[in-house]
Amino acid sequence: TSQPLDDTSSEALQVLHRVFGYDSFRGEQQDIIETVVGGGDALVLMPTGGGKSLCYQIPALVRSGVGVVISPLIALMQDQVDALTALGVRAGFLNSTQDYEQRREVEQAFLSGDLDLLYLAPERLRVEATTRLLDQGKIALFAIDEAHCVSQWGHDFRPDYLMLSQLHERWPDVPRIALTATATEATHAEIATRLNLKSAKHFVASFDRPNIQYRIVPKDSPQKQLLDLLRTEHAGDAGIVYCLSRNSVEKTATFLTQNGIEAVPYHAGLDSRVRAKNQSRFLREDGLVVVATIAFGMGIDKPDVRFVAHLDLPKSVEGYYQETGRAGRDGLPSTAWLAYGLQDVVQQRKMIDTSEGDAAHRRRLGTHLDAMLALCETVQCRRQQLLAYFGQTGEPCGNCDTCLTPPESWDGTIPAQKLLSTVYRLQHERNQKFGAGQVIDILLGKTTDKVKQFRHDDLTVFGIGTELKDTEWRGVIRQLLAQRLLAVEGDYGTLLLTEDSAEVLGRRRDVMMRREPERAARSSSRSS
Ligand code: ADP
Ligand code: ZN
Q1: By three-state DSSP, how is residue 213 classified?
Q2: Could you tell me which residue ranges the Helicase C-terminal domain spans (predicted)?
Q3: How far is the CA of 278 from the CAs of 263, 288, 295, 328, 464, in angstroms?
Q4: Alpha-carbon dihedral sign for residues 333, 334, 340, 345
Q5: Residue identifier of the C-alpha nearest atom 24 of ligand 1
Q6: Fewer CB within 10 A of the terminal residue: the chain, N end or C end?
Q7: How far is CA 479 from each of CA 11, 219, 222, 237, rounded to the nearest angstrom?
């Protein structure tokens, strides 16, 4: 460190008071700021709403020169610059949305030392003119926002981020601070390697968001379940509803509006002006609901989002954590609600099977999905499981559905054997594969047309599973999938045995299952 810490901290504190109007630093902000002001590198893992921006904005103001912020969030740069300008901070941005004149003005300001912060889209660095420009000015620091975008294994990879390893080679004396809210240990390590942050100090905040109540319910009629939730617990609240497809985004937004809840759609297929308008309405108005694909929300700083609802299963725990993290930045009680069903698993498996990329990539996507399923089917505290995924430990939280209404766990070994042996018989006696629907019909002994057509009523397993209802069998299948005792593939979601299935069939392994608590069962039957 080149400056005595006392000076650094008092200057930083003054900037915090004078410019931002806050009394004190939060969490590790002060340590982080001191590190960067002193010329050191920092890698910051902090949940959404934790206060990452100040960690580079204050050092940029304290150090001489311009703080250069690399951010993939082009759509938000104008807002960020406006917000800083309102505080009297001199800020500008360079990205592809600007024309020549606008760009030149910012470049001029940069060169003449009239900027405190310059936001830069990563692809700008591919242009030689930009790097030459940076050479001609004085850089206080590089901030690499959304640093997980450098991770090829993660859920939000941006190829341009790989170039950021050059920053250190080209400007070795400029301190760098990389920040992200996505933080498995694997991503963490990858960021450090790929950004060449060998001597960086690591700051890992707790990822717990205690004011968010996590709830995961079995999906039966998702729109009605959602409406029920909004009417009973979130009337008049602002919130985000995530759907996987544009089509279901549109349908859900219309459905809510028709039922008296003001909702607007947001997805990549909309005209960019409509998208910008819906986004800014969401930020400015009270109590608006945005129904969106995951394209919405990265970097959105709206403190009073009271709920985040998922009508489809997110593809990974990291994605789920990030999306739900947009709720309750103001620290007030908020809800993260997810409805998921067997069809989600079938659909995502299909997407993985047909996705581009090599076998290793598909395996990785499969691992992400499995972790998400495990979170859905757990009988433990959701928060504990979520934090464990990020390598952090905690006590049962008392503020998630499994803590509030503990699900029973029951010995599902016999139903598991019945189901797996049905799949086995279809595969080995008949050389056939079927989806969940047909397998359940066989277990329940239903003589449907399809059962007659394939003479499935001749199978020895026909009708051996009448002790459970259709929906209960679906639960059994979901849980076998989550425990990798069963697999699903293809367009029709056909069921297959896995390597581990034999252990259950051979009675060498017991299978514990989760029984949905009464509360969930009641609310889903009320809404159907
Ligand atoms: P992140 O980027 O980590 O999601 P932000 O930097 O947007 O979080 O900060 C979240 C909110 O907390 C913002 O409204 C910000 O102004 C506020 N904030 C950050 N640090 C402090 C602090 N030390 N005191 C009070 N408010 C703060
Ligand atoms: Zn809990």
Answers
A1: strand
A2: 222-373
A3: 9, 10, 13, 20, 53
A4: negative
A5: 22
A6: C
A7: 56, 14, 20, 34
User: Measured from the CB, is residue 52 less than 6 Å from ligand 1?
Assistant: yes
Residue 512 pairs in a beta bridge with: 411
Place of tokens 């994605």: 319
* 207 Cα–ligand 2 center, Å: 14
SS3 call for 253: helix
Give residue 386 CA to ligand 2 midpoint distance, Å. 10
**Considering every ligand atom, which ligand is closest to the CA of 19?**
1
pLDDT per position in the chain (528 positions), as tens?
444 556 667 899 999 999 999 999 999 999 999 999 999 999 999 987 789 999 999 999 999 999 999 998 887 888 889 999 999 999 999 998 899 999 999 999 999 999 999 999 999 998 899 999 999 999 999 999 999 999 877 778 899 999 999 999 999 999 999 999 877 888 899 999 999 999 999 999 989 999 999 999 999 899 999 999 999 999 999 999 999 999 999 999 999 999 999 999 999 899 989 998 999 899 999 999 999 997 777 667 788 999 999 999 999 998 899 899 999 988 899 999 999 999 999 999 888 988 888 888 888 888 889 999 999 999 899 999 999 888 888 899 999 999 999 998 899 999 999 999 999 999 999 999 999 999 999 999 999 999 999 999 999 999 999 999 999 999 999 999 988 899 998 878 899 999 999 999 999 999 999 887 664 444 443 333
Residue keyed to tokens 């199978």: 459
Closest ligand to C-alpha of residue 297 is 1
Nearest to 15 by CA among 50, 45, 59: 59
Classified as helix, coil or strand, 495 is strand
Cβ of 27 less than 6 Å from ligand 1: no
| Ligand 1 centre distance from Cα of residue 53 (Å) | 7
331: CB partners within 8 A, 6+ apart: 211
Kindly report the length of the chain: 528
Distance 391 CA to ligand 2 centre (A): 17
Predicted complex: ipTM over 0.90: yes
Q: 184 and 391 in contact (C-beta within 8 Å)?
A: yes
Q: Is the CB of 205 under 6 A from ligand 1?
A: no
In the numeric block, which tokens belong to residue 458?
A: 């001749």
**What is the Cα–Cα distance from 77 to 66, expressed in whole angstroms?**
16
Round to whole Å and give the CA distance between 77 and 83.
10
Residue 229 DSSP label: H
Tell which residue, 42, 31, 5, has the closest CA to residue 201: 42
